Amino acid sequence: MPEAPRTAVDKALDLVEAVARASRPPRLTDLAEEVGLHRATAYRVLVDLVRRGWVLRAGDRYLPGTAVLQLSSSAARNSLGALARPVLAALSEHTGMMVNLQVPEADRSRVIDVVRPDRLAMISSLTGEALPVHRFAGPLALVAALAPSDRVPYLRAAEEAGYPLSGPDGLLADIERAERTGFAVEYGRNEQPVASLARAVVTRSDAPVCALTLVGLSSEFDETRLPRLRERLREATDELGRILSDPGYPGTSGGPAVSEAAEVSGAPRVSQDSGAAGVSGASGVSGASGASGASERSGSPEGPGSSGHASSHPGSSPRPTATPTSQPQPPSTSTSTEGPA
């Protein structure tokens, strides 16, 4: 399938991201080479980015602009991670499980925040890792919430990894069960003896925004405990859906976002993982490596860059809806006329 050519927006965002992640302020030639653009094309885009304040030019080098800094400050307060953190913390406290938040990417999902109790410190949080649909419950729940046509990249990635798609134990059967029940559960597919249970938060357009995943020891996900875990997870995802639909919802005030309930596992109350990131769920035993989700750059036209055993327990309630929040328009910043470096 041919890749779609990069749009002007793609080129601009590629350059903004390249400037932001550079270990030292890059030159024009460095940026053009990294994002796969002709030097003259990169320069023309950078002129507009400088004018709008997304990039700052200092001599022959480029730095993040004031618009990026303003957006970063706003995102720290209004990001998905910040809005979801009270829900994750309450769910972890009420279940005694590790809880992670992940978002869909082109052909897998990425863990962007984790709350981990001390008793599960031996399980890696995989914060920041990209997870394939055939090994983790989180991406499986997200893919099951997608339209069939949008599942293709995830299925292709699993097939390329050698995982079967068809048959009673194939990925398509897992997706069908997760879609039917509203939950995905996996036992030890990434690491033994770890299991996880996930549910997606879905928008009005039936596109999943994110997923919450409970992670713990396989013995804690037996048939006697699964119903209670599913109920706590349902409450949390419904709560997060309401928060995302209405940022002024009381759940964003920092109070408990999940109704009080007896703890599922009988484990002690837990503390938040201070090392959790706020940016894109399941986990493996500490030391396990996650699947890489880094995209590649080239000089040719590019398209978009680049998930688990499904639960067989019915009883899923209608999924909550959410609408994306709008981002503030950054102020325009004028600069002096520049020429190619």
So how many helices?
A: 9
Question: Termini separation (Å)?
Answer: 38 Å
Shape label:
globular
The biggest beta sheet reads: 7 strands, antiparallel
Give the oligomeric state of the chains in this entry, treating copies of one chain as homo and distinct chains as hetero. single chain
Q: Let me know the average pLDDT.
A: 78
Q: What series of H and E elements makes up the topology?
A: HHHEEHHEEEHHHEEEHE
What is the helix fraction of residues, given as a range? 25-40%
Number of strands: 9
Q: Pick out the low-confidence regions.
A: 253-341
Looking across the biggest beta sheet, what order are the strands in?
A: 5-4-3-8-7-6-9
List the helices and strands and how they pair.
Blueprint: H1 8-21, H2 28-35, H3 39-52, E1 55-58, E2 61-64, H4 66-78, H5 80-95, E3 98-104, E4 109-115, E5 130-131, H6 137-144, H7 152-160, H8 171-181, E6 184-187, E7 194-202, E8 208-217, H9 226-245, E9 309-310
Antiparallel strand pairs: 1-2, 3-4, 3-8, 4-5, 6-7, 6-9, 7-8
Helix pairs in contact: 1-2, 1-3, 2-3, 4-5, 5-9, 6-8
Quick summary:
This protein has 341 residues and is α+β, with helices and mostly antiparallel strands. Helix content is 33%, strand content 14%. Helix 2 (28-35) crosses helix 3.
Characterization of the model:
The protein has 341 residues and is of the alpha+beta class. It has helices spanning 8-21, 28-35, 39-52, 66-78, 80-95, 137-144, 152-160, 171-181, 226-245; strands spanning 55-58, 61-64, 98-104, 109-115, 130-131, 184-187, 194-202, 208-217, 309-310. A hairpin with a 6-residue loop joins β6 and β7. α1 crosses α2 and α4 (66-78) runs parallel beside α5. The longest helix is centred in the last third of the chain and has 20 residues, at 226-245. Mean pLDDT is 78; it is low at 253-341.
